[in-house]
Amino acid sequence: MQMAEHAIAVLREHLCLCDDLLPFRAPSGEYEVITDENKRVCFSHRNASVQFSLSIDTVFQHMTEGRITMKNGSPIPGLAT
After folding, report:
1. Which of 2, 9, 16, 51 is the most buried (most CB within 10 A)?
2. How far is CA 21 from CA 18, 50, 80, in A?
């Protein structure tokens, strides 16, 4: 099994998300980021027990709108070619 690359993303504000059951708010802060085998971007908060995933299109939209930035300008893991 190949070890997943990871990077750090910063959510500059809360994101309103919806899982299978209920909507929830992902808090702002730093998240470890990996890309899974389905090319979904998985976020894991560094100081809280919050995890969620987004499609790459949704991540790019949030990045364009300034809600998500990659720490130190690092690329999203698994998507660089």
Report:
1. 9
2. 7, 16, 33
For every residue of 31-80, DSSP letters joined together read EEEEE-TTSEEEEEESSSS-EEEEEHHHHHHHHHTTSEEEGGGPPPTT--
Per residue in 22-50, pLDDT (tens digit) is 788 889 999 999 998 888 999 999 888 88
> Kind and range of the H or E element at 20?
none
Nearest of 71, 49, 53, 57 to residue 15 by alpha carbon: 53
Q: What residues contact 78, with CB distance under 8 A and at least 6 apart?
A: 4, 5, 34, 35, 39
Q: What is the CA radius of gyration of the chain?
A: 12
